[in-house]
Specification:
Elements: H1 8-11, H2 15-19, H3 21-32, E1 38-39, H4 51-62, H5 75-89, E2 99-102, H6 104-116, E3 122-127, H7 133-139, E4 143-148, H8 158-167, E5 171-177, H9 189-199, E6 205-209, H10 224-227, E7 232-237, E8 250-253, H11 256-270, H12 275-287, H13 291-312, E9 325-329, H14 338-349, E10 351-352, E11 354-355, E12 366-370, H15 375-392
Parallel strand pairs: 1-10, 3-4, 3-5, 5-6, 6-7
Antiparallel strand pairs: 2-8, 7-8, 9-12, 11-12
Helix pairs in contact: 4-12, 5-12, 6-11, 8-9, 13-15
The protein binds pyridoxal-5'-phosphate.
The site of pyridoxal-5'-phosphate has 13 residues, from helix 6.
GO biological process, one term: amino acid metabolic process
Keywords: Aminotransferase, Pyridoxal phosphate, Transferase
GO molecular function: pyridoxal phosphate binding; transaminase activity
Length: 395
């Protein structure tokens, strides 16, 4: 019908969405239509939500906690979030004015962009990156500026950050994510401090997407607002730490005035998030501090097996510090076009792995493998890849 609003996705073509989200959906649809495929494209934990968290949600239903809450979220939940962030990352957020609950980080990014960006603004996105940031920027009539990190081990260096901020005066948001999807790369405290020192000199907000903060294998996760509290908006949630992707629970924390602005957008969009998910989150934040440990240990075992196995068959990658992804460089004796190669591997080996270029600039020539799958699938993946390399290597 003519009054139908134009499809927001098609509005953002060609480069961002067409290359990323839609390509990922299409690739996955093809993998799903085939029989006996090992699927290493999955971006969510393959563990169940902890029992005590599920029980808290069931209790909430039985106790009729089934009504709207205030938009920012039940204040008991906000207090539990504040206590958790203090214990885990030594952060000091006032639960009454500096924390907001959202429908996952996904809604947090969307509402924060909407609250901050004006048409014509720019958003700095280190690339390759998680797929929503560019489209969210474009949806707000802002321009994504991609900083290619492929020549710097997929890390943002302070000097590169400074030069891009100097060259693009309209950057209002630095969209940061670590541990990173798709590369698994994270940062030491010194590296983060060096970036914070640069950012202090500019009038930009940092949106720090730390959704994988509990999945760090080497050392400790340092949260960015610890280093730059007045400019940082922290995005986190329970999707990855507590295997709760379907509950749609996220948090946005930051300076009081900006949180109030984001809350207005959030209220317009949602009224509030689910009261049942909030009850589950209260339990996770108050009593589930150790829940991620067993899952993290499993991911680490899988990471080690996958990393070593890939190395043996000629795929080099940075050892991932966190998250559950490996970003593997395609060996020189295979087809260097990652999209063609991933499709060929799917057709010949029934193995689904995402091409690196689906994650944008700098991802070309890489494949992203998710190890949020069983050890059996990891071993199956290595056997299939090994076979593929043997058959298809060019001398
Ligand atoms: N941020 C990153 C970097 C992700 O990889 C993902 C999911 O894959 C999300 C955010 C989505 O988080 P949520 O489930 O809280 O919306």
């Amino acid at each position: 019908m003519s009054i139908l609003k134009k499809d927001p996705i098609s509005l953002m073509k060609p480069e961002v969405v067409a290359m990323k989200q839609q390509a990922i959906f299409a690739f996955n649809a093809r993998a799903k239509s085939m029989d006996h495929v090992i699927n290493m494209t999955i971006g969510e934990p393959n563990f169940p939500t902890p029992e005590h968290v599920k029980e808290a949600a069931i209790r909430a239903i039985n106790d009729n906690e089934t009504h709207y809450t205030v938009p920012e979220g039940n204040h008991q939940v906000l207090r539990a979030v504040s206590g958790y962030l203090k214990k885990k990352y030594d952060l000091n957020y006032d639960p009454e004015s500096q924390i907001l609950t959202t429908g996952g980080v996904t809604e947090g990014v969307f509402s924060a962009f909407n609250a901050i960006l004006q048409p014509g603004d720019e958003v700095l996105i280190p690339s390759p990156s998680f797929t929503i940031y560019g489209p969210d920027a474009k949806f707000n009539k802002a321009t994504p500026i991609y900083l290619d990190t492929s020549k710097t081990n997929f890390k943002v260096l302070p000097e590169d950050l400074r030069s891009v901020l100097d060259a693009h005066k309209k950057i209002k948001i630095f969209m940061f994510n670590y541990p990173s999807n798709p590369t698994g790369v994270s940062y030491s405290e010194d590296e983060l401090r060096a970036l914070a020192d640069v950012l202090k000199e500019y009038d930009v907000f940092v949106l720090s997407d730390e959704i994988y903060s509990e999945l760090v294998y080497n050392g400790k996760h340092v949260s960015f607002p610890k280093l730059l509290p007045d400019q940082t908006i922290l995005l986190n949630g329970l999707s990855k730490s507590h295997a709760m992707t379907g509950w749609r629970f996220g948090i946005v924390c930051g300076p009081k005035d900006i949180i109030a602005q984001i809350n207005k957008i959030h209220e317009l969009a949602t009224t509030s998030i689910s009261s049942i998910s909030q009850a589950a989150a209260l339990e996770a934040y108050a009593n589930g501090l150790d829940d991620p440990i067993a899952m993290r240990e499993k991911y680490q075992e899988r990471r080690d097996v996958l990393y070593e196995g890939l190395k043996k068959i000629g795929f080099n990658c940075p050892v991932p510090d966190g998250a559950f992804y490996l970003f593997a460089k395609i060996p020189e004796n295979l087809n260097q076009d990652d999209v063609q190669l991933a499709n060929d591997i799917l057709d010949n080996e029934c193995l689904a792995i995402l091409p690196g270029s689906f994650f944008g600039v700098g991802g070309e020539g890489y494949l992203r493998l998710s190890y949020a799958v069983s050890m059996e699938d990891i071993k199956g993946c290595l056997a299939k890849l090994g076979d593929y390399v043997k058959l298809h290597s060019q001398a």
